[in-house]
Amino acid sequence: MHQGDLHAWQVRHDERTRAAAPSDFLRRPGLRGVARPSIGVGVMLTAALLVSGCSNAPGGNAVDPSEAKKSIVDAVKESTDAVGGEWTVYRGPAAEVCTQSGGGDGARFVYVLERSGTDGTDPAADIRTVEELWKSKGITTERFESGGSDPLTGIRGADGPVTSIGFNAYPQRYSITGVSECSDGDVQDLRSAA
């Protein structure tokens, strides 16, 4: 998904769900079957992007763009390795504009991997595995579960080497979305160099 497409999706999503909590959105009729994981990835990606305000303090230690990119790729890759299976790139690592605490623009990286074919998996065990890994890295975690008889489950985290990270352990597909710290890079320059 391109940044322009993501932004348009976020605006449409925000308009549709302004009055409803994300869990209410996932429980609405008609969101069963194959479409649910795609919506879940979108909801998780939107949530990760919304909570990922960048926090480089003026006069503080600046984060180099290559370090920010490497840290999020490593965190997502270690998570997928811990769960196992064949993962493919859904998005990124893509540079996006973020606002540093001093008000200046910076660059963060978003990286999303997904895995189809979850037959024979144990989502609860996989969530525990990811939770233990993230906690060992200083990431604060919170599990989530939608309502209903066939709930969508996962875990999200923040702090440590990431701004935000999430693992959706859905029956049809798993996905891990990570957002890096805000770096001092210029997004246009980083995209041109890629």
How would you briefly describe this protein structure?
The protein is of the alpha+beta class and 194 residues long. Helices cover 40% and strands 27% of the residues.
Identify the notable features of this structure and list them briefly.
single chain, 194 residues, alpha+beta, six-stranded antiparallel β-sheet, 6 helices, 6 strands, disordered N terminus
Structure description:
By secondary structure, the chain is of the alpha+beta class. 40% of the residues lie in helices and 27% in strands. It is built from six helices and six strands, in the order ααααββαββββα. It has a six-stranded antiparallel sheet, sandwiched between helices. A hairpin with a 7-residue loop joins strand 3 and strand 4. The N terminus is likely disordered.
Kindly report the spatial arrangement of strands forming the biggest sheet.
1-2-6-5-4-3
What is the first-to-last residue Cα distance?
17 Å
Let me know the average pLDDT.
76
Helix content: 25-40%
Taking pLDDT < 50 over at least 5 consecutive residues as the criterion, the unreliable ranges are: 1-59
Number of helices: 6
